[in-house]
Write a structure and sequence with these properties.
alpha/beta, Dihydrodipicolinate Reductase, domain 2, 9-stranded mixed sheet, 6-stranded parallel sheet, 35% helix
Length: 423
């Protein structure tokens, strides 16, 4: 098996911590030979781990991609609104690209990136990692085997977890749609993708409701302060940053704002960064709960619910078919047969890789697709991702318009017309 060479653009949690470890675990398959990262500490740390010489370490993607083509693959894990530029340039340089989700918060950019992949005859794989996990692959297999008959309806709950939403979507990088993406895109495009994949039919109509119900200044406790470290009510607040980031269980999350996980460094980070701010005064505007209703070709329906106010961070799915029902959560899947009344329990072995094995799974699959590339699309190609992204874009449009029902075909047609007019 030949070793593939890759460059990494964006050495943050997903790039350096999610996908790049595959090269350390399987060095005969993948090696990183260059990195572009604005943070000098992250850049140096990644270079040291992967043995990258200083001349191939860059402070931004522009000089890296100005070089003659260095590798087979570009892994792009910049922030949501910074995907378009490096992706277009990498495709133009004939890199196969693995791009962190979402593609872009701009539908026009999504369409242009998909077209650029076609024009350059390169793979553009979007990191919808759920499709690559044993859990979701098993569910797909049960459906394909006909064990529950034809799908009538799916209910999918994304329980974000009260600390995850506070960390990432109230205090963190994805807390404001003006600088990142709406919640339905930044967090839940995974779910739009997996629902489309399981249904295997085009989505026709979408409606959505949701709001920022809790995490705003109107709910700030009396006597609270701008920062947890200065707050008199911090000891009785469920979202206390010091309690969370200094605990043994969750201390690792502090790695998002400090490189050294010592108590003094974490406390300093809570004084200096947004991760120490009050959750009711964090300049966040993305929703903390949202529901999406979908109708698919053939008449099947789906209901998706994202909520930040859950104790566990998990997904739960219920698929109702004409011959049976499937329920799944964590590592357990249960299949019910209407005719025999048989209940079958399927236990998924626990995975060490992130996202239930999806992080390593997508890298392994992507490398295999690059090695044997002959013009085929990947499992999570840009084309497939554009379709599920359109559901998310339409859902957000519906939410902002009071739950208006959006016809997906008409919505896509309008986007295509705008794209043509802008050329």
């Amino acid at each position: 098996m030949s070793q593939m060479k890759a460059v990494l653009i964006g050495a943050g949690a997903r790039g350096a911590g999610g996908y790049a470890p595959y090269a350390l675990d399987y060095p005969h398959e993948l090696t990183f030979i260059a990195v572009a990262e604005a943070d000098p500490v992250r850049r140096a740390r990644f270079a040291e781990k992967h043995g990258i010489p200083p001349e191939h370490c860059y402070a931004s993607w522009e000089p890296l991609l100005a070089e003659p083509k260095l590798a087979d693959i570009a892994v792009i894990c910049t922030q949501d609104r910074m995907h378009y530029g490096p992706t277009m340039q990498a495709l133009d340089k004939k890199y196969h690209v693995m791009l962190e989700k979402p593609m872009s918060p701009d539908p026009k950019e999504c369409l242009e990136m998909e077209q650029a992949a076609r024009d350059n005859d390169r793979l553009l794989t979007i990191c919808h990692v759920l499709r690559y996990t044993p859990f979701w692959n098993t569910i797909k297999k049960v459906i394909q085997e006909g064990r529950i008959g034809e799908i009538v309806s799916i209910q999918l709950n994304e329980n974000v977890g009260y600390w995850h939403i506070a960390h990432s979507f109230v205090r963190g990088n994805w807390n404001n749609s003006n600088t990142s993406s709406p919640m339905i895109l930044s967090k839940s495009c995974h779910d739009m993708d997996v629902l489309s994949w399981l249904m295997d039919q085009p989505c026709l109509k979408v409606s959505s409701f949701g709001s920022l119900k809790h995490f705003h200044e109107g709910n700030a406790p009396e006597g609270s302060a701008d920062r947890c470290l200065d707050c008199a009510v911090e000891p009785t607040c469920a979202y206390s940053a010091p309690r969370f980031y200094l605990s043994e269980q969750f201390r690792g999350w502090a790695g998002h704002f400090t490189q050294e996980l010592t108590k003094p460094n974490i406390i300093q980070g809570l004084r200096d960064t947004d991760y120490g701010r009050c959750v009711y005064r964090s300049e966040n505007n993305v929703v903390d709960h949202q529901v999406v209703n979908m109708e698919f070709e053939g008449g099947a329906t789906a209901m998706f619910s994202m909520c930040g106010f859950t104790f566990e961070q998990e997904r739960r799915i219920q698929i109702m078919g004409t011959k049976g029902e499937l329920r799944g959560e964590e590592d357990q899947i249960t299949v019910y047969n209407f005719l025999t009344h048989q209940k079958t329990e399927i236990t998924i072995p626990s995975q060490t890789s992130g996202h239930g094995g999806g992080d390593s799974g997508i890298v392994r699959n992507f490398l295999n697709e690059v090695r044997h590339y002959n013009g085929q699309e990947s499992l999570t190609s840009a084309a497939a991702s554009v379709r599920s992204h359109l559901i998310a874009f339409a859902a957000e449009k519906s939410r902002l318009n009071g739950g208006e029902s959006i016809d997906l075909n008409e919505y896509a047609r309008q986007l295509m017309v705008k794209e043509e007019l802008s050329k």
